[in-house]
Design brief:
about 350 residues; ornithine cyclodeaminase, domain 1; Rossmann fold; about 25% strand; globular
Length: about 350
């Protein structure tokens, strides 16, 4: 953790009343916390992250959040940017996450996704912290998938397939292990080196056999639970290859022009999303089938928050495919960021 000493609240009047911080500690704020990826990783456990995600979705379902629809734009021949503001009733903070995405960056050995979360005092508007957002985003997304998987996946599901080998894939493996007992894990990435690195890492955190394959189709065919965590703009497997009874978490594509699932898989599935409004406006996995008139908005059966309030809302059967499609919600960032900042002020 680094504290920037150049930030002052009204430095011309150092005798002003102290500002109340998120943990209610009364101090004069003289600096902005700078919280690193490593700090975030040390602060958030799998169990705590699942609790925070559940809280965020339930608060949203109860309409206790301010969460404008995220905005985004793409620079010609450049990156895509999107902005996710949110505030939760009862919290003393508000946050805005700024995300950039450029899959071509990996050709230059640069991260394809970059995120920063800015945290503010919700009363004064003063900036409290800047959080490196890649780990937090991956962790809260994996926690969301774990919540959906626990409700939607068959209890006897014992094979996990992961398509992707980046930060989201790394966050999802421990999250999935928390909600199901697997006999094997199969992973695919277009890069042989990346998927082999993933297998080496995975073997250090679990005794479950983890193997790689050069075929996304094989992962789709052989997995009871699927995690789709890529930056691909087009589907990497055919929806006809997904067996009945499969549950899929699709979390990699978040722009209207990109998708990880083809129309066939979306049509075959019982579809649950993090946000209906956001899904029909910005998720290519949903937007494209809607434009094709292959599905209607009513094909979306529920939001995850609604499902947490009533786990029987969907009524899943063994011969059905379920899909949880998420592109990320500002309320998740707000709840997680508030917790992370509060832990640093307490320490």
């Amino acid at each position: 953790m680094v504290v920037h000493d150049w930030y002052l609240i009204e430095p011309e009047d150092p005798t002003r009343n102290p500002v109340k911080l998120p943990n209610s500690t009364s101090v004069l704020v003289k600096s902005v916390l700078s919280i690193s990826e490593e700090d975030v990783g040390r602060t958030l456990t799998v169990q705590k992250s699942t609790q925070l995600a559940r809280r965020a979705y339930l608060l949203r379902a109860k309409r206790r959040v301010l969460e404008p629809l995220r905005t985004w734009f793409t620079v010609r021949d450049g990156a895509s940017f999107y902005f996710m503001p949110a505030h939760v009733s009862g919290l003393k903070t508000a946050s805005v996450k700024v995300v950039s995405l450029n899959p071509r960056n990996r050709n230059n050995h640069l991260p394809s996704i970059s995120a920063t979360i800015y945290v503010f005092d919700s009363r004064t508007g003063s900036e409290l912290a800047r959080i490196a957002g890649n780990n937090l985003t991956a962790i809260r997304t994996a926690a969301s998938s774990a919540l959906a998987t626990d409700i939607l996946a068959l209890k006897e599901a014992d094979s996990l397939g992961i398509i992707g080998s980046g930060k989201q894939a790394h966050a999802h493996l421990p999250a999935m292990l928390e909600v199901r007992s697997f006999s094997r894990v199969l992973v695919y990435s277009p890069s042989k080196a990346h998927r082999e690195n993933f297998v080496r890492w995975a073997s250090k955190i679990t005794a479950v056999p983890v193997t790689s394959t050069d075929s996304a189709q094989e992962v789709a065919r052989k997995s009871d639970i699927l995690v789709l965590a890529t930056t691909s703009r087009v589907p990497l497997f055919k929806g006809t290859n997904v067996p009945l009874g499969t549950h899929a978490n699709a979390i990699g594509a978040a722009l209207p022009s990109s998708r990880e699932m083809d129309t066939t898989l979306v049509k075959r599935s019982i579809l649950v999303v993090d946000s209906v409004e956001q899904a029909v406006a910005t998720y290519g996995d949903i937007v494209i089938p809607l434009k094709e008139k292959a599905i209607k908005k009513s094909h979306i059966r529920a939001e995850l928050g609604e499902l947490l309030l009533d786990p029987n809302l969907v009524g899943r059967r063994e011969n059905q495919i379920t899909v949880f499609k998420a592109g990320g919600l500002g309320v998740l960032d707000a709840v997680f960021a508030d917790y992370v900042v509060s832990q640093f002020w307490r320490s």
